[in-house]
Each structure stands twice: as C-alpha cells, then as structure tokens.
Structure of tRNA(Ile)-lysidine synthetase:
Amino acid sequence: MRILLMMLLTSPILSFLPSTILRTGLRTKTSLSSTLPNLLTSTLTPHLSPTSRIALSCSGGIDSMSLLKSYITSDIKHPIDVVHFNHRTRSSMEHERDVECISNLISNDPRCTLKVITNPSSSPFTQTLSSSWRKKHLSKYSIILTAHHFSDSIESQILKLTRGTSILNLKGIEREKYLGGGCLYLRPFVHLNKEELREFLGDVEYNQDESNYDEEKGKRNYVRNKLLPIWKEMDGKVEERFRGLEEEVEEIGEFLESEIIKRSELFEGEEFNVVGREYDYIDKLSFRRFTERYYISSKPIFDKIWEKIKSSIGKGPKWSLDLGGGWIVKFEKGVITVKK
C-alpha cells in the first residue's frame, strides 16, 4: 500500500496538469471575494426552477460558513433553508455556539431560513447512522449544497486506495451527483483548497469542531491530521499530483465507460453471457456493473466471484456460488446467472 501511494505521488505521468485545473497558490483576497460567489452561482443556477427546494448544509465550521457567506454575497434570488444537524456528539454549549455563528451571518438576509435538526436519541449516532439520518432529512429537498473542497477529495481518494477500488472509482468527490429520490448534491468548491476557503471567510465567526482533529474517531481524521501533513513535508506538490491523478482517472473513466456501453449486449435480464470469449479488463468492469444491478457491490464478494469465473472458463463444469442473503451465482454452458 505504501509503495503504491508513493508511486502516485512521484509519478511523472501525474505531473501533467491541465492549465484549467492547476493552482499555483492562493488567489488574492479581492479575487476570492468574487470567485467563490460566482462559483456557487454558476454551479447552482442551471439546476434552478421556481419550485426548487434548496438546502445548504451548514455545520458552523470554516468550510460550510464559507459556502454560506458565498450565498449571502451572491446575486442568487432563490431562497434557501440553512440546515444544521445536531448529532449530540458535543456539548450543548458547543452546539449553541454553532447555531449562534450561523444565525449571526444570516440575520439580515431574508432569503435564508435556519433549520436545526437534532438527533432524537440521547446517544450519539455512529458515523454510518449519522450519514443515513442526514440523508433522510435532506431527501425532501431537490438540491443540497455542501462545502466539500479539494482536500476532502484527496482524503476520499486515499481512503478508497486503502479499502481497495477500481480505476473507475478512484476519482475524488464529484461536483454534481444525483442520489436516491432525485436529490441533487452540488459541491461548488470541490476544486478549491481549504486555505482558499479560510482566506475568503475572513473575519466571519465560525466554530471549529475539535472532533475533526481526533485521530481516534475514524480513518478520515487520521488521513487528514497525520498522513497528509507528512506527505506534504515529503513532497510539497501532493495536491497538484492528486489533481493530475483525478484528471487522468476522469479521462480513462470516460473511455472505459464507452467500452462498457458497447458491450451492453452482454446484459440480458439475469444472465451475463461469456460463451467463446477471452476475458479482458472491460469484461471485468462490465460484469461488476452487472452484479451491482443486483446489489452485489461489495468488492471482496465481487473479487471472489470473478476469480471463480476466471478459473472455470474453458473447463466446462457447472458450478454455483452462495453469496449469502439468498443470492446465488450459477455458471453453466458459458452463461453466468445471478438470482435470489
């Protein structure tokens, strides 16, 4: 794992950066004051309709307060709900401080309505339950604005590498993404770094969540507070290299996606036809897409199926593989069937 990550950081291929993505340093404060509101406007406006319900998710920290300030200083007319979640992971005093910072910033803006949503349980949620809880409450909105930035994107790429992933899934956080129920998540700042957001925020009050610096509370915190600072000491161009990686992954992904579409004839209901062909990487990706249709998205399970398939092709026997949960994969006469 360590060798792979070092190769990513030092690869000459990843040194190539498109001029539209490369950032050699912070913009000036004057430039940032117009850049961030303009970014928000250009990201949001194409998706607006008179009936759009918009939520701006705001924790009270640097990132989301920068997003909120961008909205307030923009020319966007559409009203929004500023949604703050109280997970009950911190003291009531800390939460009140969050709400105070948000309220102070929006107090003179009639476009903004503050919505505070509190964990109904007296016990804190786990990280997974917290995410599900937030998504449940945000699902009534058509557009959700979040303040994810490029540092978050790097963290996501690193975590994907540690878990194991395919080249198609190695890209960072997407600027636009539809989730279940037609909710559109927009992240206008995903190509900016945290220092730029901090500079733009200026003297606006915010409340820092100290749990983001607790390395015992999740792998992301460890990557953010331990791993990335060490890499930056070793190589000051870490962010640039990850920008290059993201660009290359996007280009490769577009090519592979077009090849997968060409092989769409392999998908026939519950059957994946592999008769008389040699397997290649496109087949593997195509079959992964096929299994995801049936919610078999776990990479370890998929890899187990794939190795079984590769060892069976050309040998002629029938076999079946019990995936658990009632799911069965069967192989007979060159046809793979996934059934429950």
Remarks:
- The first strand starts at residue 54 and ends at 57.
- Confidence is low (pLDDT under 50) at residues 1-26.
- The chain has eleven helices and eleven strands.
